[in-house]
Amino acid sequence: MIKEYVRLLKARNWMKKNQPFLYSWHAYVGFELDLFSQFRKWRTVKDVASSKNLQEELLLRWVEVGLAIRHLKKKGEDKIKTASKFSLPSTPKNPRSTGIILKEMMELHIPTLLSYPELLRSNKRNTFDHEEHGPTVARTSSLLEQLALPRLLKMIRKNKIKRIIDIGCGEGGYLTRISVKFPNADLTGIEINEEVAESARNNCRDYKNINIINSNVHDYMPENKADLIMVNNLLHYIEPQDRKQLLFRLKSWLSRNGSITIITPILHSKKGEAFSSVFNSFFSAFENLYPTPAEEDIIHMAKELNLKIKTYKPVVTEGGWYFIQLSSK
Ligand SMILES: C[S@@+](CC[C@H](N)C(=O)[O-])C[C@H]1O[C@@H](n2cnc3c(N)ncnc32)[C@H](O)[C@@H]1O
Fold first, then answer.
1. What percent of the chain has pLDDT over 90?
2. Is residue 168 within 6 Å of ligand 1 at its C-beta?
3. N or C: which end of the chain has fewer CB within 10 A?
4. Residues 144, 231 share a domain
């Protein structure tokens, strides 16, 4: 009897633990199909289903969940409206919508983590499709910009930095934000993904001091020395045994008192261990993505490169993300 009760309690506990998934799933579907915008004004399910050419019955199911978790509200018999607009993702037409993080989690992270049993049994790894996921990943990592930027700006100001190279610049978010504060700095972004580089060029077109180059960092060579080289959210694209070599090359591009800054999740960080370890599980599921470094790896690399770790500070503590500044001694 007690055994049966414990069994029930355990099952209930797992159900409850999984409840937050409901909110993310609902918000993801709403974002992907732009449904929260459709229901910005009071509308019926029938009306939205026919104007967006969607299955009415499934849309109704989605609406019912939305009403239960208060993402949506109801008036009269059948009029529905988006309830908590502030906390829900804005339209996918907005390149800065936070829905992009839901898209990455639901389309990339969760399916990959769910493939673990199959991967473990088969001894195989997935292949990360840079072309397909590049634009989403570049956009989600830009969410960190706001948090990391104050540290970067302070450093640029303090060290009177003039020439900056951003390796794996994504859509150019760091460069445009730096350009606003330092319109006379000379800024270069290196981006391997053609589509992402094109978006970066587009985003940077009004900033005359930014130059975007569509190239693999391994094939690139700057014309002039740089005072700052940024390596933001890039290390997991580089094999651990190649990182030292890459940083060694980057060091040779630095001016006399130049710095390299790295933003990366740190494995086994004091805080954010759960998040950084699951992030690492995600990377490791792909043959062409690589584990994040641990603090010891950074210390070891800096020592071998004869660089000093000037700053080692968390950017997102609960996520184990760090901002690291390496400078010539
Ligand atoms: C996770 S995103 C980070 C973007 C941006 N640095 C940020 O922190 O928001 C990494 C970017 O590096 C680019 N990348 C990966 N390997 C590269 C390489 N070998 N050379 C240049 N860019 C690369 C990817 O295409 C991607 O846009």
1. 84
2. yes
3. N
4. yes
**Nearest ligand 1 atom to alpha carbon 173:** 9
State whether the beta carbon of 134 lies less than 6 angstroms from ligand 1. yes
Distance 235 CA to ligand 1 centre (A): 9
Query: Tens of pLDDT along 76-133?
Result: 999 999 997 788 999 999 988 999 999 999 999 999 999 999 999 998 999 999 988 9
Give the pLDDT confidence of 264-315 residue by residue, as tens digits.
999 988 778 888 899 899 999 999 999 999 999 999 999 999 999 999 999 9
CATH of the domain at 21: 1.10.10.10
CA-CA distance, 167 to 190, in Å (whole number)?
5
* Whether residues 234 and 169 fall in one domain: yes
Predicted TM-score of the model (pTM): 0.87
CB 229 within 8 A of CB 250: yes
Residue 230 counted as domain residue: yes
Inside any domain, residue 114: no
> Does residue 316 have its Cβ closer than 6 Å to ligand 1?
no
Residue 42 carries which side chain, given as an amino acid letter? Answer: W
Q: What is the pLDDT of residues 144-188, one digit of tens each?
A: 888 899 999 999 999 999 999 999 999 999 999 999 999 999 999
Residue 131 placed within a domain: no
- DSSP alpha helix (H) spans, the chain: 2-17, 19-32, 35-38, 45-52, 56-68, 99-104, 110-114, 116-122, 130-141, 145-158, 173-181, 194-203, 240-252, 273-284, 295-304
Ligand 1 pocket, 285 CB below 6 A? Answer: no
Whether residue 106 is contained in a domain is answered as no
Give yes or no for residue 267 CB within 6 A of ligand 1. Answer: no
Residue range of the domain that includes 10: 2-90
Specify the number of domains making up the chain. Answer: 2
